[in-house]
Design a protein that fits this description.
Layout: H1 16-23, H2 34-53, H3 63-76, E1 80-81, E2 86-87
Antiparallel strand pairs: 1-2
Helix pairs in contact: 2-3
């Protein structure tokens, strides 16, 4: 059994740890989920901002809450305000 990672060019390290250290890999425990969660965060905030520009006040910033408020507004033809649970205009 090799003590080296798959991409190691020498495949001759005494331990897996030594192989990683000499490869100069830099990792952080928080990096694993960051790209997709950042995209989700950005998409939710963009959707919320778009709804607010239309006069809609969703019950929250999650995509689900924003979509619900937009759908209600589109059905009634008036901007929904979750704060009053009513429609503006």
């Amino acid at each position: 059994m090799s003590n080296c990672r798959t991409g190691c060019p020498t495949q001759n390290h005494e331990s897996y740890s030594q192989c990683l250290q000499e490869s100069n890999l830099q990792m952080s425990t928080g990096d694993a989920g960051r790209p997709s969660s950042q995209k989700k965060w950005d998409a939710e905030l963009n959707a919320y901002q778009s709804a607010r520009k239309q006069g809609i006040q969703p019950a929250g910033t999650t995509l689900k809450k924003v979509q619900e408020a937009v759908e209600l507004s589109n059905k009634v033809g008036k901007a929904f305000d979750a704060g009053t649970n009513d429609f503006k205009g």
